[in-house]
Amino acid sequence: MPSASFHFPKGFLWGTATAAHQVEGNNSNNQWWDWEQQEGRILQGHKSGLACDWWGGRWKEDLDRAAESGQNAHRLSVEWSRIQPAPDRWDEDALERYRLMLRGLRERGLTAMVTLHHFTNPLWFEEMGGWENDESPVFFEKFVRKTVEALKEYCTLWVTFNEPNGYAGLSYAVGVWPPGKKDFNASFHVTTNMVRAHAAAYRAIHTIQLEARVGIALYYRELACAHPTSPLDRWATRNLHHTLNAIWPRALKYGVLEFPLKRVRVPEAAQTQDYFGFNYYSRYQVAFDLRKAGEMFARQFFPPEADLSGTGFLANEPDGMFSGLKWALQFNVPILVTENGVEDAEDKMRPRYIAQHIHQMWRAVNFNWPVKSYFHWSLVDNFEWERGWTQRFGLWELDLDTQARRKRPSANLYAEICKENGLTSEMVTNYCPEVYDKLFPG
Ligand code: BGC
To answer: What CATH number should be reported for the domain holding residue 70?
Structure first.
């Protein structure tokens, strides 16, 4: 077989992404912990518990794994409720612990990307109405100032919000995340406050650190119209695409929130993204469905021939990543792939999922699109929100009872990719020969 390779530009960032609540353990002072204690909220009654015990120090061994396997970057998040356990109290020890972690990244040659909000709010903040409270941007800005001041020595790449579009939808419209509301108006109100908070944080970070690069990590969902000849399906697809994918980046470019039935001006948010943070997992078909009023009349599904993941949660749709990157170009900023991955305890699909998505990213780079990083979700199995521990996204498997880690074959594949700064035909032959012809046709 001929040897061929897909190489990436020098300086490309290869890493994994994690989030505080999902890996640290004992994050008992936020709204998610509270939610996990309530019956029926999390699949099989799972709890985050000790998680991957990063707070107990196991971040060291996991970051060793990341560095030894050729990664040169890592994206992690800080936990607001640890840093500010009460409105009038800062925990300097917690900040010191994060400084230690970030120093740990540096010592291992890993460029840091820090997420300031990854779905969790301090309990005190949630009790004051969370993001529905119009004072929320003020609280967030204070937290961001304090945190960035403390960590600026080790990081210049900041994510204000992880997937604020997903968060507002799942917490306030669909209602499967705390506080469990099913109210579109509430989700639009929350979105407005979060955009304001982002704008305030963006400016605060830039006054503290001139060289900072600030953005969000958008949950991008590729949506394909199920029946392109049906005007209703086309309407549902367009509408959902706009509401889910486009509202946030357009607000951060133009300073206007274009909700389905109203526009809200947020002038201070214009031009507040230095990069486009792109989280991509899958592509969904969309059909109009009157019964789906709570989901904007859009029924979403995978086609019957789809290559489905371990629990059927995702389909392997790498082309959707290419289309999404193409769409993101319009915002005229560098694109950072901030998450991509699949739940697959057996590691049957993950090798081809990784290879095929990186191939699509390579195609994008070859058109000279400014794609600068890839962060795989995730380094080690971690607590998957309302799906608990039923889904396993790690390159390393976690045994929750013993905290032992076991390497999955994908970790070796990803290590080879990072070390090569590219994907070769040998890697595909060795790890996922079933897609060889797709990646190297003819
Ligand atoms: C989130 C992660 C989550 C992952 C897999 C992403 O949307 O940012 O926190 O673990 O999806 O479910």
So the answer is: 3.20.20.80
Q: Does 339 sit in the ligand 1 pocket, CB within 6 Å?
A: yes
Distance from residue 384's CA to the centre of ligand 1 (Å): 7
Q: Is residue 424 part of a domain?
A: no
Look over the chain and give the mean of its residue pLDDT values, rounded to a whole number.
98
Q: Read off the pLDDT of residues 22-50 as tens digits, 9 standing for 90 and up.
A: 999 999 999 999 999 999 999 999 999 99
278: left (phi over 0), alpha (psi -120 to 50) or beta: beta
Q: Ligand 1: which of 161, 339, 389 to mutate, judged by most atoms within 8 Å of the beta carbon? A: 339
Query: Does 1 map to a domain?
Result: no
Does some domain include residue 213?
A: yes
Angstrom CA distances, 340 to 102, 178, 328, 391, 396, stand at 22, 24, 16, 15, 15
Q: What is the longest distance spanned by two Cα atoms in the chain? A: 65
Protein residue closest via CA to atom 3 of ligand 1:
384
Which one of 165, 281, 314, 377 would you pick to mutate in the ligand 1 pocket, going by the greatest count of ligand atoms within 8 A of its CB?
A: 377
| pLDDT the model gives residue 294 | 81
State pTM to two decimals. Answer: 0.98
Number of domains present in the structure of the chain: 1
Asked if 99 and 82 touch (Cβ cutoff 8 Å), the reply is no
pLDDT at 314: 98
- Between the CA of 426 and the centroid of ligand 1 the distance, in Å, is 30
Residue 442 pLDDT class (50, 70, 90 cuts): confident
pLDDT at 377 over 60: yes
State which residues form the domain around 239: 10-408
Residues across the chain: 442
Six-digit token string for 18? 């994690």
> What whole-number distance in Å separates Cα of residue 90 and Cα of residue 179?
25
Residue whose Cα lies nearest atom 9 of ligand 1: it is: 19
Question: Is residue 79 in contact with ligand 1, taking CB distance under 6 Å?
Answer: no
Tell me: the pLDDT tens digits for 77-92? 999 999 999 999 999 9
Q: What pLDDT score was predicted for residue 2?
A: 53
